[in-house]
Structure formats: structure tokens, C-alpha cells
Write a structure and sequence with these properties.
By secondary structure, this protein is an alpha/beta fold. Helices cover 37% and strands 23% of the residues. Bound molecules: iron/sulfur cluster.
């Protein structure tokens, strides 16, 4: 990979804050959902965003896909500021929105329940001129259904969403998202709505598509096992988020087998363990179980209220995100110069 090559997508010091209004007027608070994130995505990159609910991973994913406007910071698509394009070059913005697709967690929210699988898949193909007629669309959709192993395709093409299983709906959602041949897919908890037994199948479908097209994935997950699966098979990276910021970022094996940040250690320890002996030996005890509010994040290190290693500096000064080894970053005073 040429490191000087302009990334497909670059996020620079991104902040997305939401103002909560009082019922009777005035401001109740500001949720700092994403609070200073930088990231580069090149062709074929796979980045898994991991963290508890409320850590900002979905908001970051939506901002990357242009669904949420940043409060501060910049998102560049092939070197061009996407929100400047929105104002000054609608065609360029339209192209960026086409090339970066967001796959929501709940396939139902993406489907019109009164439309058949054929209509669901054919509409974008006609809109983006991948086909020129509904007749041509039938062959195209049958092929898509075979490719995603929703078979026999003739049986499924005229079914409605409620006539599909959770796994089939998620596969068809993936086919819908990829029918326009995007360069980046932001997949928001794609396996959460799928039966456990079918999760690996869905990830394998995503991996097969990655092999074919070297699409870049931003894979959002609240658990480490699926993040590890998809990033290890693609040479990807895991980014662990806590209260709107990255606290650790690096290759999956390093992050999971040798987590540096106390929060990553806690996430690894929290993963369900089949071996009860190993589960008993799990080591890190957090000082607090609950995550603090993103409207009023703790001063200094945002993790200090829960961290068993917290020192005086942690309550006063925010640690920087530093590169501790090639491609591996951590935000913690245990590793940074004080
Ligand atoms: Fe814990 Fe301090 Fe590191 Fe934060 S900076 S994770 S409080 S040791």
C-alpha cells in the first residue's frame, strides 16, 4: 500500500455533539457522542469499531456515511471535504453518498414492508442505472439472490420481508447495500439481529464480497469475537471506543491477546468464556460498572472513574492517543510521557 496515496475517506478530529433541549425551552445538556476522532480508510481496509452502548460508534459510522453532520472536524472523500461538497458540488456529494453505504442494524427499518424482494432490490438498480428495464432487473435480482445464497431464487424473488427469516432479511439487506457497488460499507451491528448459528455465515458472505471487490468495511460491534473474526481474515484493525474517543487501536491479535488500555482489558475479560476455570481467573475489576454520561464526561481520562489503575494525573489531564508500536495506538497515562 502506498502510504502517500490519498485515502478513500479521512476523518479529521471529528466531533458530533447533540443538544438536548428542555421541554419549556432552553438547553438541558449536550451529548458528546463523538468527541475528537481521526481515521483513514483506504481501499479494502477493514476497521472494526468496538465499545459499549453509548460509546459513539454508531454516530461515528453514520457521520462517515454522511447521515449525521459533524459539529466540528472534517470528513474528506478522496481528499474533498464532503460537507463543502454538499453546499457547493451536489453531484460530488451524491457520488460520495453512493460510494459510501450505511447498513443499519435492523433490516426491517431499511425495507418497505409492502414491497417484494424484487421491488426492494430492483429500485436502486434502476435509480442508479445499473439496469435499464424491469425485465432486465429480474435476471439481475435472481443472480444477486443466488450470489447471497438465498435459494432457490425463484422462490424468494416475490416474497415480502415478513415472509423471510432474520438471516435471509440480513442477507437481502447486504445485497441491497452492495447492489450499487460501494467502495465503503459501514455495517452497524450487522450480526446482532441474526441467530447465533447464522452469524458466521453472514460474516463469511461479507468476506466473500470483500475478496471479490476489496470493499472497505467499517464494522460496528459491541463484542470482540465478531470484530476479531472479520479483521483477522482481512488484515484489518480494531478501534476500541470509550465515551466518544478511541482508547486503543491496532491489529486484532495484539488488541485482544495483549490489550494495553485498562478498558480494552475489561472488554476482553467481559467476553463470555466457555471454560469456567479461565472465567474464574479473569483479572480486571472495575471500580464502577456503569459508564458515565456522555453529556458530562469525567475530566482528565474519561475512564478514570472506573479504572483500577487511576493515578492523580488521570483525574486532571486527558492522555493523548500515542503510537506505542507500528500501527498500534493507546490513550492512557500508563504508556504516555507525563
Ligand atoms: Fe486508567 Fe489513568 Fe490509563 Fe485512564 S489514563 S486508563 S485512568 S491508568
Amino acid at each position: 500500500m502506498d502510504v502517500n496515496e490519498v485515502p478513500l475517506l479521512e476523518v479529521r478530529d471529528l466531533k458530533v455533539h447533540f443538544v438536548i433541549k428542555k421541554r419549556i425551552g432552553g438547553v438541558k445538556g449536550v451529548v458528546r457522542a463523538v468527541d475528537g476522532v481521526s481515521l483513514k480508510i483506504r481501499k479494502g481496509d477493514v476497521i472494526a469499531l468496538v465499545g459499549e452502548s453509548g460509546c459513539g460508534k454508531t454516530t461515528l459510522g453514520k457521520a462517515i456515511a454522511g447521515l449525521v453532520k459533524p459539529t466540528e472536524g472534517t470528513i474528506l472523500w478522496k481528499g474533498r471535504d464532503v460537507w463543502k461538497m454538499y453546499r457547493e458540488d451536489p453531484k460530488g456529494f451524491f457520488e460520495y453518498k453512493l460510494r459510501v453505504q450505511y447498513m443499519p442494524q435492523d433490516p426491517y427499518s431499511a425495507f418497505n414492508p409492502s414491497k417484494t424482494v424484487f421491488e426492494i432490490l430492483c429500485t436502486p438498480l434502476l435509480k442508479w442505472k445499473r439496469v435499464t428495464s424491469r425485465a432486465e432487473c429480474i435476471d439481475y435480482v435472481l443472480k444477486i439472490l443466488s450470489d447471497i445464497k438465498v435459494t432457490p431464487p425463484e422462490e424468494y424473488i416475490f416474497r415480502y420481508p415478513h415472509q423471510l427469516s432474520g438471516g435471509e432479511r440480513q442477507r437481502i439487506l447486504f445485497a441491497l447495500i452492495t447492489s450499487v457497488e460501494p467502495d465503503v460499507v459501514v455495517a452497524d451491528e450487522p450480526i446482532t439481529a441474526v441467530d447465533v448459528a447464522l452469524r458466521v455465515d453472514l460474516m463469511n458472505l461479507m468476506l466473500e464480497y470483500w475478496e471479490r471487490r476489496r470493499v472497505a468495511y467499517v464494522f460496528i460491534s459491541h463484542e470482540l469475537a465478531s470484530a476479531r473474526y472479520i479483521t483477522e481474515k482481512t488484515g484489518g484493525k480494531i478501534g476500541v471506543m470509550y465515551l466518544g474517543k478511541f482508547v486503543e487501536f491496532g491489529p486484532p491479535r495484539a488488541v485482544i491477546e495483549n490489550p494495553l488500555h485498562p478498558y480494552t482489558q475489561a472488554l476482553v475479560d467481559a467476553a463470555p468464556e466457555l471454560d469456567l476455570e479461565i472465567a474464574r481467573k479473569k483479572r480486571l475489576r472495575l471500580r464502577e460498572v456503569d459508564i458515565p454520561s456522555a453529556t458530562n464526561p469525567p475530566k482528565g481520562c474519561r475512564f478514570h472513574t472506573r479504572c483500577p489503575y487511576a493515578m492523580d494525573i488521570c483525574t486532571e489531564k486527558e492522555p493523548p492517543l500515542i503510537e506505542v508500536e507500528n500501527g498500534r495506538y493507546v490513550r492512557c497515562w500508563l504508556y504516555a510521557k507525563r
